[in-house]
Design brief:
Layout: E1 2-6, E2 9-18, H1 24-27, E3 35-39, H2 51-56, E4 60-70, E5 73-79, E6 99-104, E7 124-128, E8 136-140, H3 146-157, E9 159-163, E10 168-173, E11 188-191, E12 207-213, E13 220-226, E14 232-239, E15 256-260, H4 269-279, E16 283-289, E17 293-296, E18 304-308, E19 321-323, E20 326-328, E21 331-334, E22 337-341, E23 348-352, E24 359-361, E25 369-374, E26 380-385, E27 390-396, E28 405-413, E29 421-426, E30 432-437, E31 442-448, E32 457-465, E33 475-478, E34 484-489, E35 494-500, E36 509-517, E37 524-530, E38 536-542, E39 547-553, E40 562-570, E41 578-583, E42 589-594, E43 599-605, E44 614-615, E45 623-625
Parallel strand pairs: 7-10, 11-18, 13-15
Antiparallel strand pairs: 1-2, 1-22, 2-5, 3-4, 3-23, 4-5, 6-8, 9-10, 11-17, 12-16, 13-14, 18-21, 19-20, 23-45, 24-43, 25-26, 26-27, 27-28, 29-30, 30-31, 31-32, 33-34, 34-35, 35-36, 37-38, 38-39, 39-40, 41-42, 42-43, 43-44
């Protein structure tokens, strides 16, 4: 399970988890495009750390691009933070419009696109050191990727850059030590046991390989133009100042790269040529692996290290250092790639989903949550399900903000009346609770001696049979005045309306001979809710659609006057098996719960009661500790 870091490149990582040990509530959050970080030490409670502090302590961060479940193993694969700039296939964030710079400083370029720069929102500006850096003149043509634009600026200005684990970019002149160790390496690589000093503990590689690749080398850069008729012409050429190679007849070796570039010298032919000749050059690659060599010190990708193995050509008389009682003349090499294993529990591994909150996990109390309700002021939430046959109460420290919710250690058992409860509702004053289920096909009424305190509830010996209309009743709702009740289920795919001759007394209820079909596109309906004024109804369900649907009632609270409003909202990314639905009092927030993730999710509606304006946004994400589940090398 290595992490492979590459200089100014996304690199890659693979991490495997033991699924038999990972709790389901954490497995459900592992989604593509989430993030992971690896820390040098294991922090047992990442939730106690500020987000910035945890990332500052990280050795590595990456984005998950693939998740594979096989047997008892989950494999997470992805790339490092440079992926947010672009990838090897030329995909990534792009410049939406041409950007031209004239003698611009680097800090005027390495900034967000929205501020006139070339960095996407995913990468923040870190420490940009401008000392010794010249200016840049040129144009980036849309839709060029941000990665290509950044590499062009770095190569042209002779700079190097690093994206830190907190997704900030640092950059400086390539000859300076502000970002990487350049002028004075602190790491020495020698044959194992070399020198007279005592053996020290360190990384012990097995081999050293030096490879030179000249396949991309060129001596000339050519910029061409192609007109509308397809005719080609040369706009500009540039030759290397020094050509160190000869052909078989003793002539200077000539090879050219032909590329499309700037349309005029106003935007910098010289800049383009310099970049091209730098890219199309001889590549030298050194690889160190384990057992025969000792490493002294610590390093990161981009740092320079000293390597001394004269029998393999690794020596340079221009460098002299005193090491283990001996004077050495090592080669100073930049580390372009570093592969290292993720070893736990010495290291910490943490995952952050792309969408963990605004939500509230209820699986510790009920693993099959079907029904959802709120108190009138939004400071309490209630869940009912079929695992424990109880209604559970939760406290929201901020009204209607589900992410602030926690279990209030209060519940009410309803299994004596209904062993498969599917929905819960309350009277307007919170002194009565109601449940419906699929065992007895009845709505049961309970009395709460303290309003909205479910622990004070008891069965009121009152019920209403609904099995003549729906034999699998799942959803339950009431009109604002308590004189009407509504039931929905997947057998008939209809919402049925009942009349209560005494408000909020379910024993006085009877079928009003009014209903509406809600089985849109083959959906099986399970949850129902209404707007505060009774002119809108909302349905969630299963099978063919992971969406919430909105209906318009031309007569308030009369379900028979309802029709589909051609408005819906996707909820499947959060909960593919949604059963319960509720709204805030003002209609600007919607909530769903289901049995796939055992979580209540919150949605924001920019127009009250219009779910077509709803979205799952505003998440304050948090890290989950995966360290104990990692299959360590």
């Amino acid at each position: 399970m290595p992490v492979t870091e590459r200089l100014e490149d996304p690199g890659s990582f693979t991490i495997q988890l033991n699924t038999s040990e990972v709790p389901f509530d954490e497995i459900r959050l592992m989604k593509e495009l989430g993030q992971i970080i690896v820390t040098p030490a294991w922090f047992l409670h990442p939730e106690l750390f500020a987000d910035a502090d945890l990332m500052a302590a990280a050795r590595y961060s990456g984005v998950i691009l693939g998740i594979e479940w096989e047997g008892d193993t989950i494999t997470l694969r992805g790339q490092g933070p440079w992926w947010y700039l672009g990838d090897a296939d030329g995909n990534g964030p792009v410049l939406g419009a041409d950007v031209t710079y004239a003698a611009a400083t680097v800090d005027d370029i390495l900034k967000p696109i929205s501020a006139g720069g070339i960095l996407p929102d995913a990468i923040a500006v870190g420490t940009i050191t401008t000392t010794g850096v010249g200016t840049y003149t040129g144009t980036f043509y849309a839709p060029q990727t941000c990665l290509s634009a950044v590499r062009t600026v770095l190569a042209t200005l002779g700079m190097h850059a690093r994206i830190n684990p907190d997704w900030t970019m640092d950059a400086c002149l390539a000859t300076r030590d502000d970002v990487f160790v350049v002028s004075s390496p602190t790491v020495v690589v020698v044959k194992k046991g070399f020198g007279a000093d005592p053996v020290f503990t360190g990384i012990e590689p097995t081999s050293l390989r030096d490879r030179i690749d000249a396949i991309r080398w060129v001596s000339k850069s050519i910029i061409e133009a192609v007109d509308a008729a397809g005719a080609r012409s040369i706009l500009s050429t540039s030759d290397r100042a020094v050509v160190p190679y000869q052909d078989g007849r003793g002539n200077e070796l000539v090879r050219a790269v032909i590329q499309s570039g700037p349309s005029s010298d106003d935007v910098g032919f010289d800049t383009f040529h310099a970049r091209a000749l730098d890219q199309w050059n001889t590549q030298r690659e050194e690889e160190l692996s384990t057992d025969q060599f000792d490493f002294s010190g610590d390093f990161e990708v981009g740092d320079r290290v000293y390597v001394y193995a004269p029998e393999l050509g690794f020596h340079d008389d221009a460098n002299q250092i005193f090491y283990r009682g001996t004077v050495l003349s090592p080669v100073a090499l930049q580390v372009p790639v570093d592969s290292w294993p993720v070893k736990t529990p010495e290291m910490g591994v943490y995952y952050r989903s792309r969408d963990t909150v605004p939500s509230m996990y209820v699986g510790d109390e009920e693993t099959l949550p079907y029904g959802l309700a709120f108190s009138a002021d939004g400071t309490k939430a209630y869940i009912v399900g079929t695992t424990s046959d109880r209604v559970y109460q939760y406290t929201l420290t901020t009204a209607w903000d589900i992410s602030t919710g926690s279990y209030a250690s209060k519940s009410m058992y309803v299994g004596a009346e209904e062993t498969l409860p599917r929905s819960v509702a309350f009277s307007a004053d919170g002194t009565k609770a109601y449940i419906v289920g699929t065992t007895s096909d009845r709505v049961y009424q309970y009395t709460l001696t303290i309003a909205w305190d479910i622990s004070t509830g008891s069965y009121a010996s009152k019920s209403m049979y609904v099995g003549d209309e729906e034999t699998l009743p799942n959803g339950l709702a009431f009109s604002a005045d308590g004189t009407k009740a509504y039931v929905v289920g997947p057998i008939t795919d209809r919402v049925y309306q009942y009349t209560l001759t005494t408000a909020w007394d379910i024993s006085t209820g009877s079928y009003a001979s009014k209903s509406i079909s809600v089985g849109i596109a083959g959906m099986q309906p399970y949850g129902v809710a209404f707007s505060a004024d009774g002119t809108k109804a909302y349905i969630v369900g299963q099978v063919t659609s992971d969406r919430m649907y909105q209906y318009t009632l031309t007569t308030a609270w009369d379900i028979s006057t309802g029709s589909y409003a051609s408005k819906s909202m996707s909820v499947g990314d959060e909960e593919p098996l949604a059963y319960g639905v509720a709204f805030s009092a003002d209609g600007t927030k919607a909530y769903i719960v289901g049995i796939a993730n055992d979580t209540v999710y919150q949605y924001t509606l920019t127009v009250a009661w219009d779910i077509s304006t709803g979205s799952y946004t505003g998440a304050t994400r948090r890290w989950f500790d995966l360290t104990r589940y990692v299959r360590s090398e």
